[in-house]
Amino acid sequence: MPLLKLAILGDYISVQHYHTGLDVRDMPEYVFHHGQNPGSLYTYFYQYFLARWHDPNIPEYALDTDELIYRDNAGNEIRRESFNDFATSAERDRP
Q: pTM (2 decimals)?
């Protein structure tokens, strides 16, 4: 499954896609500018970013405690999990 690296800096969005088994350095990176063009891909990537950012199924990462924070649809904290525990279990579950 392809993954996206999506970074927003002001009026610019940088997008790079990754595929399993391919070297990341060989994959192109695209930059989109927010301008007056209503057909620009900037708007679509920005909306995609916001949808993922506010998705309660994706945990937050707390830099100060190195934990993943899980929240419900109302934004209330449900539980915390050590990132190291998560990374270890993800590595173990890999095919």
A: 0.65
